[in-house]
Design brief:
The protein is α/β, with parallel strands linked by helices. It has a domain of 140 residues: Rossmann fold (3-Layer(aba) Sandwich). The chain is 44% helix and 20% strand. A hairpin with a 2-residue loop joins strand 5 and strand 6. It is globular. The relative contact order is 0.19.
């Protein structure tokens, strides 16, 4: 049975540990493809085109938009960011599950184009833990931390539209939960109708004694 990759969207509040979770998942189970976004921002030192991002000019990016070659896109701090269709489709055709780490609005746009996409939202065990993790970075001033918490409060209003939540308390436990949720999607009946029909026809043949 040929196994086509599935599209997985992972979202979560700032500071909840999405990046750490994704890194550990790909370390432990290497068959996932983390989607590479396109952007109009300039490359930073040691960044390579096609690795961290697909770096494009504004004109090139707007052409991708016009041609419908982005699954989703947004403008942030004066630059475009978006998910190229070609990369995602190519990876899934090769049987690799593609993981997009994007925010809620982008996730809902993905679901419109890919109704079978699996939407996962990473939650903290409680609000106190989220605040502690944000402060634990030690890199942001108080007003930025407050802004991130306010944004989290806004984002919490839309999480019911996701398929599952993962409570990121213990990292290894969360990684295993994420892995099993993704794997289980491959065995949904709706994804295996061709295989079911094949088995059905073969059983009929045996039943006739042919």
């Amino acid at each position: 049975m040929n196994r086509r990759g599935i599209l997985v969207v992972v979202s979560g509040f700032s500071g909840v540990g999405k990046g750490t979770l994704m890194k550990r998942l790909t370390e432990k189970y290497g068959h996932y493809a983390l989607s590479v976004s396109a952007t109009t921002r300039a490359p930073r030192e040691n960044e390579e085109d096609g690795r961290e991002y697909f770096f494009r000019t504004r004109e090139q990016f707007e052409q991708l938009i016009a041609e419908g070659r982005l699954i989703e896109y947004a403008s942030y701090c004066g630059n475009y960011y978006g998910t190229p269709c070609d990369y995602v489709e190519d990876q899934m055709a090769q049987g690799r599950d593609v993981i997009l780490e994007i925010e809620l609005q982008g996730a809902l746009k993905v679901k419109e184009k890919y109704p079978d996409a699996l939407l996962l939202f990473v939650m903290p065990p409680d609000a106190q833990t989220l605040e502690t993790r944000l402060r634990g970075r030690g890199t942001e001033p108080e007003d930025v931390i407050r802004a991130r918490l306010s944004r989290a409060a806004e984002e919490s209003q839309g999480v019911e539209q996701y398929d599952y939540m993962i409570i990121n308390d213990d990292l290894e436990t969360s990684v295993e939960e994420l892995y099993h949720l993704i794997e289980s999607q491959h065995y949904k009946m709706s994804r295996n109708l061709e295989f079911v029909q094949q088995i059905r026809e073969e059983i009929k043949t045996f039943a006739k004694g042919e």
